[in-house]
Amino acid sequence: MRGPLFLFFFILLSIPFTLVSTLSSDGYSLLSLSKNLTVPTPILSTWTASDPDPCNWTGVECGSRHNYVVTLNLSGTGVSGTLGPDVGRLRFLRTLDLSTNNISGSLPPELGNCTRLSYLDLSSNSLSGKIPEALFLIPVLDSVILNNNLFNGPIPSSVRLKNLVYLDLSTNHFSGEITYGSENCTNLQYLDLSYNIFDGGIPSRLRNCTSMNTFAANHLSGPIPPEIGKCSSLTELLLKENLLKGVIPAELGSLRNLTKLWLYTNHLHGEIPIEVWKIPTLEEVFIYNNSLSGQLPVEITELRHLKNLSLFNNDFSGVVPRGLGLNSSIEELDLSHNRFSGEIPPNLCFSKHLERLILAYNQLQGSIPLDIGQCSSLWRLRLDHNNLSGPLPHLLENSGLIPLEIGNLVKLQVLDLSSNVLSGPLPPQISQCAGLQKLDMGFNSINGSIPLSLSKLTGLQYLVLQNNRFTGEIPPSFGDLKSLSINLDLSNNKLIGGVSPLALLNNLPRLDLSENNLTDNLTKLGALSSLTEVNISYNHFMGPIPVSWIKFLRSSPSSFLGNSDICIPCQEGEPNCTDVSNVSPCSRSSKKKGGLSKMKIVLVTVWSLVFCVLVFLVLGYLLLKRRRAATKKDEVPLQEGSSFTLNQIMEVTDMLNEKYVIGRGAHGTVYKAYLSPDKIYAVKKLTCTRKKGLSMSMVREIQTVGKIRHRNLVRLVDFWVRTDYGLILYDYMENGSLHDVLHEINPPPILLWEVRFKIALGVAQGLKYLHHDCNPAIVHRDIKPKNILLDLDMEPHISDFGIATLIDTSFSPLSSVIIGTIGYMSPDCVYDQEEQGIGCVQLRGSASGTDNQIESSGSFISGEHRHRELGELQLKWRRGSLPRSNHRSGLIREFMGSRDMEEVAKVLSLALRCTAKEAGDRPSMRDVVKQLTDLKMRFSLQK
């Protein structure tokens, strides 16, 4: 009995040992790997010692003649953790694919022990650190895919493998120079080094990579080496978003198999060599955002495989070659922001494959070709900012009309024909473009009524019909456009009637109905809860403003001007029941007027005559008395201690001690006064230069200026007048002046273009309010960066408005004295537009506004000379040839080649118009604000 029992226990105890002992060494290695890697349970459940054959485990493959692991593929399975050194024990491993997971940490040097490894894909993880040298010492390694990680440091010097065929290191943080490329790269077919931070240029020794069919890299500088032309197998040359400069070498024409040529967003100049346009296999040519010039040759029409041609943001000129679409199946054509002239050629959509046609911002003339209306494949059409007009083939008696065939574009999503010379009615057939999302017909001469069928475009998000000649009422079915979620602009037309159809547009953020003849009660629009900006100025609206709109009235009073019958809905005595921009409370403007009897009329008339006589006698007596004491009453003394706030100011500044000075200007000294965390002020001390002291007229003018309220004007809190000087209390601006930000702070802060544009628009809005919405109008006369203050949100606030006039009339005995700053003051000293233009030039970079604009004598340069200088500046900037004047020159180059470059160019162009020699040629500040606002909306939509 003991013998069989002993044997039974022996067999039972030996079972686990037998199972474990049969697990292969590769199995042990995989189990060790799983200790560092977090493998999902469904996969890990198969990785168990109970199955001694790892060839059956999920993601594992073994050789056909042995049980060694040759493939480990866990791509996209959700693996995380780190890759441990045990991977180096898989000596027969040929393929390792752990891509698209969340593996972190560094690569173990032991990976180099996998001497049979030929394919390695660790892309789309969070791996970091340097690539171990041992990896590229594996002799049979032919494919290395490490893109979309966090690797850094230089490319290992061991990357000289003769067998390497595919190398993708893109989208990491590799740095240093590209050292790869030697006689041992003859088998390389794919090399992608893009989206790293390499230094230096493209190595000319890449010419030895004669089998390479794809080369991509970025952050490289210098010229394109002509030796690239010897890479005869290249099919894709992707050198986008670099710092490459110089000309495109003609040797690229030797790449007879090239299909993709991407050279966009660089600093290339000159003409595209004719040899490039003779490469017969070209399919995609993206060379936009450069400074290339010249004309497009006729050879471009022979590229039978051409599908995408994008040359926007360059300086090309001449005509668009006729026959461009006849021999190819072109899908995308973008030649915008150049200087092309002539007519739009016909047959661009001959193959019926054209999807995007963008010819905006050129000098094209003539009519819109009839065949464009037959291009049913189009989904984006932009012909805006040209001079399109002229007769259409089927309507020769008219000119500049919008073709009726436009309704055939059933796939169209974006249609922008703005800023042309188009006339005639808007075709109702446009409603057949059922997928339309953006429609911009602004700044034309389109007339007639707004088509009723327009309301069928239920997917429309952006609708701009501004600055046309539309008449009639807003269609009653406009309420069906419930997808309007970006902008509705019907301004500057001749529309009449009510606005009830708009009350259903609940997703609308921006509404502009200004400068029409609309008449209605506004309360019905109060439910539009998504509104963030409203302009109803210069109409005939009546009744109370919706309560939800009072915030718009206070932030932008000018948007409600020109409506004499509107009022603020509040009761007398309420905290918010105050006049805003001449809009009175309804309780004050809607008092009932009862009828008067004849007796009452007679009594009122008699007493009015008696009252007038008494007033006349009293006024005569007062005038006579005032003449005698005129000189004594002209000064306004103020004894210290008459104001509690003034006492506080004097106390915290030690009686205006020099250590509290934060600025000095043409009008006085500015001190910082810290009363409490929520009461920080700037105190400006105006020194009197006239023995007579400060006049009562100046006090009245300061009182007038103090009543002005606008979000882009520094608020005047209080003021005090003494016999020899005056003190004005302003809100303190935390970020100082624009001058400090651009020129004084070191190192200079980074200003994104959005912030710079915000500053330019804010200054323009402030000047517009001073020029057009104040009565009488206020001309600043000294707009310069030192007078533009920035708050915590970098919102600009204009300071010293009205003060130049006050000092000139109240302080100086000479009426001809020019108050301002040399280099910023306009020679005519009438308009502020020129100073605004110079400010915009500064915002596009950091060059001082007075650089190269003041002669050695310190006198003003003529307006004509300044206009010419700024014109040359604009041209140089577009070509990327501005000099590096100082350590801040990087700001000038910051936007070259960026997506903001187009917007920067338009602002610079507007600034140039603001500096025109003749004041009459400069746009009004109302026009400047309008154009900047339109730019903001247009580019926000594109982004």
TrEMBL record:
<dbReference type="GO" id="GO:0004674">
    <property type="term" value="F:protein serine/threonine kinase activity"/>
</dbReference>
<keyword id="KW-0472">Membrane</keyword>
<dbReference type="InterPro" id="IPR008271">
    <property type="entry name" value="Ser/Thr_kinase_AS"/>
</dbReference>
<dbReference type="Pfam" id="PF08263">
    <property type="entry name" value="LRRNT_2"/>
</dbReference>
<keyword id="KW-1003">Cell membrane</keyword>
<keyword id="KW-0675">Receptor</keyword>
<dbReference type="GO" id="GO:0006950">
    <property type="term" value="P:response to stress"/>
</dbReference>
<dbReference type="InterPro" id="IPR017441">
    <property type="entry name" value="Protein_kinase_ATP_BS"/>
</dbReference>
<dbReference type="GO" id="GO:0005524">
    <property type="term" value="F:ATP binding"/>
</dbReference>
<keyword id="KW-0067">ATP-binding</keyword>
<dbReference type="InterPro" id="IPR001611">
    <property type="entry name" value="Leu-rich_rpt"/>
</dbReference>
<protein>
    <recommendedName>
        <fullName>non-specific serine/threonine protein kinase</fullName>
        <ecNumber>2.7.11.1</ecNumber>
    </recommendedName>
</protein>
<dbReference type="InterPro" id="IPR013210">
    <property type="entry name" value="LRR_N_plant-typ"/>
</dbReference>
<feature type="domain" description="Protein kinase">
    <location>
        <begin position="656"/>
        <end position="939"/>
    </location>
</feature>
<dbReference type="InterPro" id="IPR011009">
    <property type="entry name" value="Kinase-like_dom_sf"/>
</dbReference>
<dbReference type="InterPro" id="IPR032675">
    <property type="entry name" value="LRR_dom_sf"/>
</dbReference>
<dbReference type="Pfam" id="PF00069">
    <property type="entry name" value="Pkinase"/>
</dbReference>
<keyword id="KW-0547">Nucleotide-binding</keyword>
<dbReference type="GO" id="GO:0005886">
    <property type="term" value="C:plasma membrane"/>
</dbReference>
<keyword id="KW-0325">Glycoprotein</keyword>
<dbReference type="InterPro" id="IPR003591">
    <property type="entry name" value="Leu-rich_rpt_typical-subtyp"/>
</dbReference>
<keyword id="KW-1133">Transmembrane helix</keyword>
<keyword id="KW-0732">Signal</keyword>
<dbReference type="Pfam" id="PF00560">
    <property type="entry name" value="LRR_1"/>
</dbReference>
<keyword id="KW-0808">Transferase</keyword>
<comment type="similarity">
    <text>Belongs to the protein kinase superfamily. Ser/Thr protein kinase family.</text>
</comment>
<feature type="transmembrane region" description="Helical">
    <location>
        <begin position="601"/>
        <end position="624"/>
    </location>
</feature>
<dbReference type="InterPro" id="IPR000719">
    <property type="entry name" value="Prot_kinase_dom"/>
</dbReference>
<dbReference type="GO" id="GO:0033612">
    <property type="term" value="F:receptor serine/threonine kinase binding"/>
</dbReference>
<keyword id="KW-0418">Kinase</keyword>
<keyword id="KW-0433">Leucine-rich repeat</keyword>
<keyword id="KW-0723">Serine/threonine-protein kinase</keyword>
<feature type="binding site">
    <location>
        <position position="685"/>
    </location>
    <ligand>
        <name>ATP</name>
    </ligand>
</feature>
<keyword id="KW-0677">Repeat</keyword>
<keyword id="KW-0812">Transmembrane</keyword>
<feature type="signal peptide">
    <location>
        <begin position="1"/>
        <end position="22"/>
    </location>
</feature>
<dbReference type="InterPro" id="IPR050647">
    <property type="entry name" value="Plant_LRR-RLKs"/>
</dbReference>
